[in-house]
Amino acid sequence: MIRALLAFAAFAAVVTITPGLDSMLVVRTAVVRGRRQAFAAAAGINLGCLCWAVASALGITALLTASRIGYDVLRWAGAVYLVVLGVRVLHMRQSTVDSPMRTGSFRAGLVTNLLNPKIGVFYLAVLPQFLPRGVPPLLASTAMAMVHNVEGMAWFTLLIVLVSRSARLLTRPTVKRRLDQLTGVVFIGFGVRLAVTR
């Protein structure tokens, strides 16, 4: 089991530090809402990943993948959510720059992952390659998801610390506006990509 976890940890580390929606969400939240809310968003992201890993081990992800309608409904819901969130970020006035995530940093991280069936497909495709023989799949999958979560939280912590150290620069109104514009475009881009890819 230890060898399987180490092998998965090496693979997951590369996936974790690859720039993407989750990192963008945590960075923006850290700049706009501060460290505590950024950690809340990171916790939501990690819980979403853990849910998908457990769903994969239980076979729910396989059922979702086999059901074209179920997969498409979830995919479109995720795409709409990301596009709406991106548009809201782009059209906010500076005085209300943090409103979409004011009380929902954790929820934003969680929902962003739960409405993305590609994360479920990722776990469904990747985890079986690392599952050791003789270990119950649910136990092994959950352990690997926890490894992924630890790596994810370490990565998010690094990002949050870097943002905190650059707070004087990043919290300037012009920089915040540019970050919001970038974040909005990234969210919309990921939403469109989720909608058009199968």
Write a short abstract of this structure.
The protein has 198 residues and is an all-alpha fold. It is built from ten helices and no strands. α1 (2-17) runs parallel beside α8 and α2 (21-33) crosses α8.
List the topology elements:
Blueprint: H1 2-17, H2 21-33, H3 35-58, H4 60-66, H5 68-90, H6 105-114, H7 117-130, H8 137-165, H9 167-170, H10 173-196
Helix pairs in contact: 1-8, 2-3, 2-6, 2-8, 2-10, 3-6, 3-7, 3-8, 4-7, 5-10
Report on the architecture of this protein:
With 198 residues, the chain is mainly α. The protein has one domain (2-196). The protein has 10 helices and no strands. The protein has helices spanning 2-17, 21-33, 35-58, 60-66, 68-90, 105-114, 117-130, 137-165, 167-170, 173-196. The longest helix has 29 residues, at 137-165.
What labels describe this entry?
10 helices; 198 residues; mainly alpha; globular; single chain
What composes the largest sheet?
A: none
> What is the chain-wise order of helices and strands?
HHHHHHHHHH
Q: Structural class given helices, strands, pairing? A: mainly alpha
Number of helices: 10
Overall mean confidence score, pLDDT: 81
Tell me the count of domains: 1
- Estimated share of beta-strand residues: under 5%
* Relative helix content: over 70%
Shape: globular
Number of beta strands: 0
Unreliably modeled segments: 94-101
What integer value in Å does the Rg equal? 17 Å
Terminal-residue CA separation: 33 Å
